[in-house]
Amino acid sequence: MMEILLDPTMLSDFLSTSLRLSIPIVFAALGGVLSERAGVYNIGLEGMMLAGAFGAAVGTFFTGEPFFGVISGMFAGALTAVVLAILAVSLGVNQIVAGIAINMFSIGVTAFLSRIVFSGQANTMTLPGYKAFAIPGLVAIPVIGPVLFQQDALVYLMYATVLLLFYLMFYTPWGLNIRAVGENPRAADTAGVRVNMVRYICVLGSGALAGLGGCYLVLSHVFLFSEHMSAGKGFIALAAIILGRWNPVGALFACLLFGLFDALQLRLQFANPEVPYQAFVILPYVVSILALVGLIGKPRPPGAVGLPYRREGK
Amino acid sequence: MNLSRRFLLSFAALAVASVMLAAPVLADPFKVALVLPGNITDQSWNQAGYEGLMNAKKALGIEVAFSEKVAQPDQAEAMADYARRGYDVVIGHGGEFQAAAIRVARKHPDTLFVVHNGTEPGENIATLDFYYKQFGYLLGVIAGRMSESGKIGFIGAHKIKFSTDLVESYEAGFKSVQPDGEVYIAWTNDWDDIAKGKEAALSQIALGADVIFPTMDNAAIGSLQAAKEKNVWAFYLYYDSIVDWPDTVLQSAIMDIKAAMVDLLALAQAGNAEGKNYNMDVNSPKAARLGTYHSAIPADVKAEVEGLIAKMKSGELKP
Hints:
The complex is a heterodimer of chains A (314) and B (319). Chain A is an all-alpha fold. Chain A is 71% helix and 1% strand.
């Protein structure tokens, strides 16, 4: 096992696996941060990611251009989020229940549509996708250079999105509005912020971001759509949001931590065949729990998250 | 927003009611239901089961129904529901349905329950399984002859009898050729996570493995893709997959559950199916056989494998 840490090529290889495993989760977690900061739990990230994956496959299949795949993937994610927005923001339905319903609906509807669009052959076709290219200069950094800067366009987009969302959230008036709506919607309303409008935008944005996670799976990772390919990544993103303290950069590191231990557990399995594999499979989850417990200070979610907002007298 | 909850609810209720009223009333032919753990387009175990059911429908003129993605907690209810609705045969597609079948079979003595890859036949429970160890062993031998690095990989989802049988015999076959070789074994804990399937294979390849054997459902496609990208060999299951992966797949273990299903259902329709285990092995090549050899496999290796199959047929070799 030690040779992974000592041999630079093997270490780069191992870290690349970690990064690839965490990228879809990062996109979904960013979406979750956006939506929860505005006061709406988004349990439907999993379903939106799956919808995004399907959208990416359909868009790329019909145009032959991965770029249009990304557009239609984000659109499909946002479209799924419209359902959550209507249920949670307009109708005031329990947000957890609405999210779970969206996940189940998404598994069914993407499978159904993919059998129509790809006539059940989605598994054997290969779609065009994004290929890795190096960023000159930065790629020469030993070990982490090739890991971080020898990647495809969607990974670079992920870096940019994390920074952009962080800036938007904490250094712009829009970000202040979003956080105000999530902390104390009545105060925000008094100050003239249109609470439900902000929530709608954030939930839709959240769906588009989770959809991007699905786009990565299809266009950069495996180049095809397969039913239920999100396989629970959206749920891990939910943990990453809390672990990252509702902060885009924090969520990024939480996802990387998860990806790192997921990649590590795969290799630990080969090295220790005599130990039951379940002991390794749970490793990323155990680390997440330990990190949640071990971090200093209690996680404090946005004050009004989960609560629908109604003006009095309406 | 002028949408009210009441409006949405009444709309939904109307939709449900119209679907239920439209359901046709049918006569009473021989009815078979198949309950599947995964989806029917996985190019793998579940798809083979679905196609087997459809072949049986065509060949035997029976009425069929199926349920996809039935999770462990819902198995007993799904099977009991079909039994209550008068289905003559209810099939659980996978060894994981064994316990549910035993529970449900007691209460529905007139229904025949079939468990594919099952382990315990009973009064009205038939099991249909394959001698996976024979095929794991044969593929292991081919891996031993084709691996230059002396390292090979096996990827499974869960440790159930089907996969442990395969991995043990695969390792045994490989070590019979390369006693000092190494087998990397990975369990992904998910049948559908195609990205994880790919990363598991890439990790094995990074450690030097040059023959990969994935055994998941949807997720196996990811492993085959990794093998293709990195130019190493792979094996696959259930169908002659060299058609889809001409540069990658060395050989496939064709567990043709389709053919086996049609035969067993024909027996059941004639009223001759018994509560016993129907085992498919090299002696029933219609149901269990090797596929097409890749052209890279030398003639003497082919001859060796065919020799081993002959020994298995005579019972001289029992992996």
